[in-house]
Amino acid sequence: MRARRSVRPVRAVAGILLAAALALTGCSGAGSDSGGSAAADGPARSEAKGSAPGGQKDASGAAAKRTPKLTGSDIIRTASLTVQVRDVPKALDEARTTTENAGGYVGDETTTRDPQGHEHTRVVLRVPAEKYDEVLAGLQGTGRLVERTSKAEDVTDQVVDVDSRVRSQRASVARIRELMDRATKLSDVVELEGELGSRQSDLEALLAQQKSLKDRTSLATITLSLSGSPAKKAAKDDEPGFVDALAGGWGAFVTMLRWLAVAFGAVLPFAAVAALLALVWLRLLRPNRRESGERD
User: Fold this and answer.
1) Distance between CA 263 and CA 260 in Å, rounded?
2) What is the reported pTM?
3) Residue scoring higher pLDDT (127 or 269)
4) Angle CA(172)–CA(56)–CA(63) in degrees, nearest 5?
């Protein structure tokens, strides 16, 4: 009987300890579950915040994902030609035809005439970049090439940068508009309208820069100067020959005749007066003297 009574308290203590252990295990499990759920909610909340209209992650992240891969180079090509031709209007018409056949157009044009009567024309031609070399070669063949300069500027990095900024600015404007649709306070609406105007102005400036880059990379610029002046011949260092001596003698002879003509012109009035006086003497005074002599 005593053995059985001693076993019962031991069993009771073991049961109490087991219940306490189970309770502690349940509490720790609940704590770990709550901690795990909180850790899982963190990235979800940050992702939701980034994708919200007022977040900052979607602008840079989306722009980085949508950046196009570089497939070619964007190059601005410019050239300047000075050509001497016999007929400036005809050469200008040929340049226009060549440019229009290549798919380009004629820009600014200036025509002047020097004191010697020679015509000079300066015209700006815009041609597609793929036809640049072909048109340039055709323009050089219109006459005698005097001067040529050409330049190629690679603006690929600038084009990619502007395109990326345009996409980011458009996304920024769209976010401001969404916030305006959700705004309920008048002060918030006024503040958002000011911000929207500023961002739209920046977007328009970027679009203008993007358009300018596209125009300059897709169309090359050629400045053509046409001159009707004859080419100046270089002075010869050779010794004078028979032809040179003949030309020099003829020049001296002509000069002598010119001086003789000048001297004759200077003496002619006096000679005319002397001839008139001699005629009067022979016709009037001399016969009278003869008659008076015969009477004596």
Assistant:
1) 5
2) 0.49
3) 127
4) 65
